[in-house]
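Board notes (copied after class):
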Amino acid sequence: MIGYGPLGGTCVNVGCVPSKYLIEAASAFRNARDPLFPGISSMGTLNFKLLVDSLRDLVNGERKAKYEDVLSKYENVEYYSGYASFINDKTVAVTNGDNEKEISAYNFLIATGSRPSVPPIKGIENSGFLTSNDIWSLEDLPSKITVLGAGAVGLELGQAFLRLGSEVTVVEALPHILYGSEPEVSETMLDTLKAEGIKFYTGASVERVEKAALYIKSEGQVKKVDHDTLLVATGRTPNLEKLALENAGVEYSTKGIKVNEKLVTSNPRIYAAGDVVDQRLKLETVAAKEGAIAAENMYEHAEKSIDLKAVPFVVFTDPQVASVGLKESECQGCTSKIIPVSSVAKARIIRKESGIVKMVADKDESIRGVHVVSPYASEIIIEGVYAVKLGLTVEDIIETAHVFPTISESIKLAAQSFRRDISMMSCCVE
C-alpha cells in the first residue's frame, strides 16, 4: 500500500466524518434555540472552539481505530508513505521528500481519490478561500460565509453554518441547486433552505473575487456579495498528476482514469477504483465496493462489476435528500407518482413535514427509481435500493407490511398512490 497524508483519505479526515458531526451538532443547537414542540423553552449557547476541538478529536479517534489500528493487524501488508509514479507498467517510484524507493509488481490498483476543484476565477488565488479539505481548521465561527456551489457539500455545510449562527449566501452557476436531481427534489430543497434563511443566487457567474467580497453577475446585473469566509464547493477533481500514467500505458482524461466494467484500465494488469475513475458517482461507498471488486477480479478472476443504477446517493441536509435508480426523464415509457411528506403520520408527529417522495415505475410497474426529500431519507432509501436492484414492483411494496408510525412508511404510501388517492386513506389502510 502506498499513500500520502493521513490514513483514511477524504472520508474520515475531511469528508463524511467531520461534516456529519458538524451537521448533527448544528441541528442540535438549532433545536435548542428554536424547539420544535410547544411547551419547551429555548436555551443553548455556542462555544465554537470547543465544538471544533471535539470534532477533531472524533476524526483522530476514528482514523486511529478504523485505519491505523486495523492496518497494523495485517502482517502481510506493507505501507509506504509517499507519492507513487509509474516508471513503467511493472514498477513505481515512491517519493517522500528526498527519499525514493522503487517497487515492482505484476498488478496495480490505483485508488488515489480526488480533491476539491477550484474554478479559475479572477482573484481567487489571493482571496483566502477555504474548501471542504481545510474548513475544519476554523477556530472562530464565520459571521458571513459565502458558498460557491450548490451541490451536496455546499448545501450541507451551508445549512450547518447557518444553524450555528452564520449568515450564509450560496452562489450557483447552474440554474438549479443539486443539479442532476429530479426537478421536484431541487425545487423542494430550494424552497426549504430559503425559508430557513439561506440566500441563493442561481444561474450566477462570478466576475471576480476579493478578500472579503465577490462580484457576481445575476439576472443581468453585477452584484457585490460581502463575506468574511469564502467556501469553494464547486466539485472535485481526480488525483492524477503525480502518477505518470503515460509510462504505464493507462488512458485517462481530466475526468479520471478510463476503466471497463470490470475496473480494468487500458493496461490489463492495472486496475482503478473510486473517485480517480471517470464515472458519474463520486462516493465513498462506491470507492469501497469498487476496491473490493477490483481485488476479486485481480486475484480470483471473478469477472465482477458494479451496478451504479442501484447505488444510493444522499445529501445530509435537513430534510435529507436520497435518490437511487433512474430519474423519470431517463426512463422511457415510465410514469411517476409524488406524495408530500406531510401525508406521513410520523412526519407530523416529529413536526418535520417538509419534503416529497417520488417513485418512478416502468409500464410493468417495476420500480426504476426512488427519490426522497424527508427526515431520515438516508435511512429509508435502502428500501428503494432493494426495489431497484431486485426489480420489485409497486404491488410488491404495497403487499409488504410496514411499521407505523415511521418515515419509511412514505415509500409504501408512494406505491399506494399508483392505485388510489392517499388523501382519502386513514392510517395503516391496505
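Comment from the instructor: The chain has ten helices and 23 strands. Residues 48-72 form the longest helix (25 residues).
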